[in-house]
Write a structure and sequence with these properties.
two-stranded antiparallel ribbon, 2 strands, 74% helix, globular, Benzoate membrane transport protein, transmembrane helix, Benzoate_Transporter
């Protein structure tokens, strides 16, 4: 072990975990609160997710000898923040988390389901994701208008650090957030701050509207925006993991963490590159130690989640939403580019994006589902018309 675990792998693993946790834990808290979680339940969810990420990351990496990083599904957390309180409250949301995790397990075991997911065009999946994220990405600037003394330093720190290194942008914004809190918030309550909290069990309830409006969109977003890109990034560095078992085990981790408030884990994408590149180790066969270290750090962060939440709760809610929104701007950029890259599908993608971003809800089912449904319906209708037109032209020529 001593010959394999290098200083570079250790530093890469610590950096990966810090970036993964610091850049998006506010989004997770915001999302869980959005579907009815109390402060204790949101803390429990954050803890369950971080520990599940750590265990799976360590297990995968030691099992496959590949730097396989695991993350919570940040796009899914963003989706929760805009879904609204489901009928049945947070227990119904937990039921949807379990359902989404089971679908991921089945996808890894049963290839036909993966093929069905493959029928959803990437442009429409990206359009749905962009529509989910857009309202959250507006919050930082709404915060600047409402509380400029608090929000402007955070936005400026994010912008300046991002010009130096994109990976530093969100951690810099988080640091500025903490500095602002120190000078402007009442920090007297920190003396009684709890660093550790016991997990909170929530019995899942299964509501059809929550399963359709929350569970299915979480599943689609997790597969399209996390799991599949996560495998692609590993392959870009020369690793060839078999994805099915990895998908299934992340699904198992999601199902087990759900009753404690976790919305779901997945293969990492951005942070996977930190552990898989040559900075982690010159020898590709030894880079998996970076992912092992990252997993251990995630577990530590998970254990002390209550401390992170206690500090964040000192801030105005709009400022917390602002930090979360800044962390999602990069994802929004990629999603918008992805939804517009195929010219024939742009109309369907724009419609999916607008319906999703509108926040409309029917029968207790949120906008993400309706946006994707309308976009898919329009696409299949246009494809059918195009085939009919081509058939008529072929008949006339004959």
């Amino acid at each position: 072990m001593s010959s394999s675990l290098s200083a570079s792998a250790t530093s890469a693993g610590i950096l990966s975990a810090f970036v993964g946790f610091a850049s998006s834990f506010a989004i997770v808290l915001h999302g869980l609160s959005g579907v009815g979680a109390s402060a204790e339940q949101a803390t429990s969810g954050l803890m369950a997710l971080a520990i599940a990420m750590g265990i799976c990351g360590i297990g995968f990496s030691l099992w496959k000898r590949v730097p396989i990083s695991v993350a919570w599904s940040t796009p899914s957390a963003a989706l929760l923040a805009t879904s609204g309180l489901p009928e049945g409250g947070f227990a119904a949301a937990v039921g949807a988390f379990v359902f989404a995790g089971v679908l991921v397990v089945i996808t890894g075991l049963w290839k036909p389901l993966g093929r069905i997911v493959g029928l959803i065009p990437v442009t429409l999946a990206q359009a749905m994701l962009a529509g989910v994220i857009l309202p959250l990405c507006l919050v930082p600037f709404e915060a600047v208008a409402e509380i400029p003394a608090l929000a402007l330093p955070v936005v400026l720190a994010w912008f300046v650090a991002g010009q130096i290194n994109k990976l530093l942008a969100v951690p810099a914004a988080l640091l500025a957030f903490l500095v602002v809190l120190y000078f402007h918030a009442d920090t007297s309550s920190l003396n009684s701050l709890k660093l550790v909290q016991a997990p909170v069990f929530v019995m899942p309830e299964f509501s059809l509207s929550a399963l359709i409006g929350i569970g299915i969109p979480i599943y689609i977003v997790t597969m399209a925006s996390q799991n599949i890109p996560g495998v692609s990034i590993l392959r870009s560095f020369g690793y060839q993991p078999v994805p099915g078992p990895l998908f299934s085990w992340t699904g198992v981790g999601s199902v087990l963490s759900a009753p404690f408030g976790g919305h779901g884990i997945s293969l990492a994408a951005i942070t996977a590159a930190i552990c898989a590149n040559e900075d982690a180790h010159k020898d590709p066969a030894k880079r998996y130690w970076a992912a092992v270290i990252a997993g251990a750090v995630y577990i530590i962060f998970g254990i002390f989640s209550a401390g992170f939440v206690g500090v964040v709760e000192l801030a105005p809610r709009i400022l917390i939403g602002g930090v979360a929104g800044l962390a999602l701007i990069g994802t929004l950029t990629v999603s918008v580019q992805g939804m517009l890259k195929d010219a024939p599908s742009r109309e369907h993608a724009i419609l999916t994006f607008l319906i999703t971003a509108s926040g409309l809800s029917f029968f207790g089912i949120g906008a993400a589902f309706w946006g994707l449904l309308v976009g898919m319906g329009l696409k299949f209708w246009m494809d059918w018309k195009q085939k009919g037109l081509q058939s008529e032209q072929a008949t006339e020529k004959a």
